[in-house]
Amino acid sequence: MVSGSNTRNCKSATAASELRHAVAMLHNVSQPTPLRWTRLVFSIFVFYAASLRSVLALHRTPPADRLFARSFREMVNPGNTVRDRRENGFKNDIACSKKFSEVSLLKGGLKFFGANFFNDSKVREMVKGATEFNIPIFKANRKLVASVNGGLHDSSVLILELGQLIRTKQITSQELTRIFLKRLKRYNRALEAVVCYTEDLALKQAKKADDFLDQGIYLGPLHGIPYGLKDIISVPQYKTTWGSKTFQNQVLNIEAWVYKRLRSAGAVLVAKLVSGSLAYDDIWFGGRTRNPWNIEEFSTGSSAGPAASTSAGLVPFGSEMAGSITYPAARCGVTALCPTFGTVGRTGVMSISESLRYLPQDTFLIDTTKLTVGYLEDAEMEVVRVLASKGVNMVPFKLNYTVDSVQGILNFTLMDVDMLAHVDEWQRSGQDDVYEAQEQWPLELRRARMIPAVDYVQAQRARGKLIREIRESFTVNAFIGNATDWEKVCLGNLVGMPVIVVPTGFSNISNPPSGATWRRTTITTGIYAPPDHDHIALAFAMAYQSITNHHKQRPPIDNLGPNDSIPNPPTVTYPPRRMHP
User: TM segments (predicted)?
Assistant: First the structure.
């Protein structure tokens, strides 16, 4: 990136170069013949124009940056050094001229994409990103699926317990709703997990649930149960901010499909919960959401609010795209399902990609003793032992596929290009300049602007090849592996493979205080199933949790320990999860 002072220096150098040409022209005029008189007049005109340009450039340059002032004075009185200075001046100007010509050429090229709204520094940033990230992925995809012409190949448990209490009238929905609203308001100051409360709506829905029950109408296990919606899901008359400063006052009078389904099942909406800004990580316009199990670290995202609220016992709801469920679920130690793509309707939900956005779905049971489960090298072996004790056939397993650009296909092509298509005006109008974390979406979406349509299609073809290879490699009914391994996260999203994250234990935090602390680092694993076999992953998770209690543990947000306290601000910071390897 070129600094402001360097930019001014280069402009001054350009003006000085023009002035050298003019001075040389004057010195080359000898005897005043008619032709030479014409040349003399023209040279004088060029000299004064260049002089004015140089003076203006120097005038706009701060005194400390006037690197060419002495050169200017010497050019007015050149003596015997004109020819030498002209030659040296050309050499000295090459670097600056080259930089500016490069930017000019690139801006000229962007004009043909209708994208000539970036300033010089952003263009240089885009060049760096394209060189380091885009081009290697383009080459890998072309080698994989575009080496032959013609395109003939590679075408492109708490809810049940609460529900029972409500059904047997041991507690009313209105009482339960007030309990959760109170907890949300009490702990949100520490967690920064709530965008807005829907208290009036919640009490109205809770009363309706109680009235139905009095009339003998029971809508199912979600009847009267409070929950929170991630703030990328629209609810009429309430803000849907997408976690972004740009949209923090946005109200969408659209009933999201998933909200309609939950409402028809009798569930009670108590709050809109934090999404990282534009569904990226845990930073949002109101702060940064924290992990209840270790309040000094952040939750990751983008389902930051739902994960933190669930972990603290505040009843949330989440969505998935490139780790938006799996990462915060693993960090905060909660059970979470990323279902097969297309299982749940997405109307009224902010979209990053037309083919990568997921929402949780309903559950059902299956006989696990008749199935075979594989386990990868990074699987939590406690899960393997527990499932084996439940009669499940456990075997070592490895996924086989030849596509070596899995992360690049998701990161630098499909996800970023699809996202840019949804926020095109946001970028064009410069609103990305006020985004909460400049190293996240703004950086990636400028790079995405330089992805050609042909390479986008090649990425889709590589994705098709990957899907076929994974299906052929899936020789077990499910497999167990690390849920937060970035390669697997990308793989699951590209293939549409369901995964459920389950807590499997706890370990001590890094650098604990000298006294005792109750803060912990959660340990989780993922149970993966083939597309459209979500029920199998759920069945194995339920089998594991039927004889373990890790998922029932609650974080120490009221009492960190006898000698533990969190400094404000925290001394430990965790950088946001990057959307590339």
Answer: none
